[in-house]
Amino acid sequence: MADYEFLTVENIPDYIRSTPTLAEVIDPDDLVLCDEIGDGNLNLVFLAKDTSGRGLCLKQSLPYVRMTGEGWPMTPDRARHEAETLAAHGALVPDLVPAMYHYNPERYIIAMEDLSDHRVWRGALNEGLSHTGAAEAVGRYVGAVAFGTSPLGMEREALAEAIARSVNPQLCEITEDLVFTEPLVDAGRNSCLPANEPDAREFSEDAAMMRAMGHAKWLFMTKAEALLHGDLHTGSVMVRAEGEPDADGVVACDSIKCFDSEFAYYGPLAFDIGAPWANYVAAAARAVALGEDERARWCLSLVSATWNAFEAEFRRRWPQRRDPRVWTDATLEDLLLTWRSEAWLFAAAKMSRRIVGAAKNKDVETLPENLREGAARGILRLSRQLVRQAGVDSSPDAFERLAHDVLLENRTR
């Protein structure tokens, strides 16, 4: 049992009242809204607003996995990881993460900016909307983190302390199991459509895929390059539109926020690049299945948009590196090339696990079964091609061309 009090709709006004920092943000005696809004697997999430329109979000970690209950214990210290990552990332790109107002280490509560005027990017993509600027913002976010939380941007002792504080074994183990291992070696949690069972079998028997995922898992567990978000995908990015969509569903973003970083830890930088790439593929697979070929091309173009913005931000910060004596411009080119090819492996892992693994995504799962069959088959076959081609041409353009061709070849009607 927990040794701390859980938040409820009833006790939130008292909690805000007892926390002076929060009472300055919102009036606890004049609330017009206080609702539980969380739909995730792990935490409690509440939104509160007062009559003047001011609001805040309260997120509390439970000592177990919410979707399964007390039978699956989980450290609530993940809230600390998220709070410290919000602070570290917010110092680098304050416009791209939610503002954090307060962290309660005794009750594992983070109070942060109200983003109810934003929406989750994945939902917008699934509705056929095109928020311009979002993919570029994700790239800029990762580029800033890559430099600012690494040896390039941090003093040595501060870096060592940050790495030590970021050790996050329980949540890392979830990724290690569900992303890299179990999609290939079923632990009893895998599933797919009956029509895709031969595809899943071919996937699990693919020696090249097994070798690549073994390498990717090794990188994930050993390569502490920067303070990663750790779970960066279209479901952990919120977007706010500027105006109404045009006839093609295109709308400009005036705010993008990367949130939900409780899986944060020091790991391989390319993981935070490959993860959103995988989600762009899922969005493209949905579009291909629905016969929206031009939209599919646009979804895949987000791969280049994210990489180019990442590279531009990293290059912009490069002159400020702490030790240019041996970290020459040749080092810069080596890092970028390495991260680009590693991102292909992480993208392959992240996209395939959503097809055969324990956790699915709505991009594909909400398709009619006859269309879902081809989308799922295309993603599995693409992941197998990605690990073979990463060392041949790791450019984003090559990634997009390969993804387009494989998804289209496997479309069903």
Short account of what is shown:
With 413 residues, the chain is α+β, with helices and mostly antiparallel strands.
Description:
There is one protein chain. Helix 12 (329-356) packs antiparallel against helix 14. Strand 11 and strand 12 (250-258) form a beta hairpin. The protein has 413 residues and is α+β, with helices and mostly antiparallel strands. The protein contains 15 helices and 13 strands. The protein is globular and about 60 Å long. The chain has helices at 12-17, 20-23, 78-92, 121-126, 134-148, 156-166, 169-181, 197-204, 207-222, 271-289, 293-317, 329-356, 362-365, 369-389, 396-409; strands at residues 31-36, 43-50, 55-61, 64-65, 69-73, 100-104, 109-113, 119-120, 130-132, 226-228, 237-242, 250-258, 265-267. It has a 5-stranded antiparallel β-sheet, with helices on one face. It starts with 11 loop residues before the first helix and ends with a helix. The model has no long low-confidence stretch (mean pLDDT 96).
Map the helices and strands:
Elements: H1 12-17, H2 20-23, E1 31-36, E2 43-50, E3 55-61, E4 64-65, E5 69-73, H3 78-92, E6 100-104, E7 109-113, E8 119-120, H4 121-126, E9 130-132, H5 134-148, H6 156-166, H7 169-181, H8 197-204, H9 207-222, E10 226-228, E11 237-242, E12 250-258, E13 265-267, H10 271-289, H11 293-317, H12 329-356, H13 362-365, H14 369-389, H15 396-409
Parallel strand pairs: 9-12
Antiparallel strand pairs: 1-2, 2-3, 3-7, 4-5, 6-7, 8-11, 10-13, 11-12
Helix pairs in contact: 5-11, 7-9, 10-11, 10-12, 10-14, 10-15, 11-15, 12-14, 14-15
